[in-house]
Amino acid sequence: MPLRSSIHVAESERLGQIKLISGKIIEERRKHVRMTQGQLAAKVGIGVRWLREIESGNPKSTIENHFRCAFALGMGSSHLVLPVIFMEKGMKFPLELLLDDPAGVERRCIECIGDYYMEVVARQFKPANESGHPTATS
Predict the structure, then answer these.
(1) Rounded to an integer, what distance in angstroms lies between the CA atom of residue 32 and that of residue 76?
(2) d(CA 119, CA 111)
(3) What's the Rg (C-alpha) of the chain?
(4) Average pLDDT, 10 consecutive residues per value, the chain (138 residues)
(5) Cα 14 from chain centroid (whole Å)
(6) Are the beta carbons of 79 and 70 closer than 8 angstroms?
(7) What is the DSSP code string of 91-130?
(8) Would you call 90 helix, strand, or coil by DSSP?
């Protein structure tokens, strides 16, 4: 039982960090597109006070409301997913990455994943050398 509770604490701390990062990205993106808190709150269908809580990373805010705010600002789910990947690798996430062109960042990530997958598939079709490993081509 104690192991389970320590895992739960770590997960809640991680979720709190995600909400903090997400809230900051939402706030920065809102300012970047010159939208007031009142305008975004009205667009999402929440109160300005609750939007302030989301932007400040309140742990009681819901991930659903973070997504709704992001979608209203023209962002996708990457504002939550990419910081989580960085966090898991012990890296600081650069907030600026998602300010100017969040759709472009998402598109580039998808292209990189596609390129990686194509390389993996291509290696499967290269002739093997005597050691059984694919041969290097120039």
Answers:
(1) 16
(2) 12
(3) 20
(4) 38 82 93 96 97 95 94 88 86 81 88 95 82 56
(5) 13
(6) yes
(7) ----GGGGTS-HHHHHHHHHHHHHHHHHHHHHHHTSPB-T
(8) coil
